[in-house]
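Service request form, structural biology core

Requester: graduate student, group of Dr. S.
Request type: structure prediction, single chain
Budget code: on file
Notes: please return the result as structure tokens.

Sequence provided:
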Amino acid sequence: MFEINHERVALVTDTACDLPQELLEKHDIRLVSLRVVTTQGEFRDRVEIDADQVYEIMKAELPKTSLPLPEDVSDLYRQLKEEGADRVLHICMSGSLSGTYNMVSILADETEDLHVDVVDAQTLSCGTGLLVLEAAECFERGMPVEDVIQRLQMLRKHQLGAFVIRTLEYLRKGGRIGLVEGVVGSLLQIKPVIYVNDDGVYATLVKARGFARALSAMQEEFFKRYQGRKVRVAIVHGAAYEDAKALLATFRQKLDVVSDLIAPVSPALAIHTGPGLLGAIVQYAD
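Core staff response, request fulfilled:
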């Protein structure tokens, strides 16, 4: 929790932020779990099921995802209040990709004796995660909540998060295809580089023939946009850690990277992208 202008402020996000546990603990960032729904039952994302388990289940069935339980959100707010919080900043994954933001906004309005500010990150995975880390670091410097929200909105406008996946099957079946549909020629192995646009929806950034060329095209987009700027970089992957390390090494060579991290996508996001995903999020560090 953070002491700011005689208020104790708590920082909350959801498990789709994909931040590693050590960073969550270091900055006292609290998590609300999305849910994974399978024929074997419902599980709290990152708490009762991990990505490796999801990939194994996907060999037999395609799980579904669901919003956090409302009582999980309300219970967390109650706990934070008991711990002495006066205010909460709750940063949610894109409201255009999940109903979490809308649900949390309603619960925040109903919460008594605790001021809850809810922010739509308009992105997901470490796109949200980097914004949450920025918020934590701003709070650690004593920045007021209103100023932090304004800074996050500015950073989001200049942030790019993009990824390449082996198949669009999972996005399509999960109803998250967004504006990507129609660009894929399966016989020609045309692969889209998918990004989260300013409205928080999946769209096509560029496309190329084959996974490797699409990955190269994605990197070039980042290098063109961020050359000469100090940046934060997050590399995300779907059970492809060695490839993620190689991708980060290339970013370090080409850009002025101030901080970086590698993270697997959360179980809930893995369901919509499948194994083999490689992606990057780049955000200004100045």
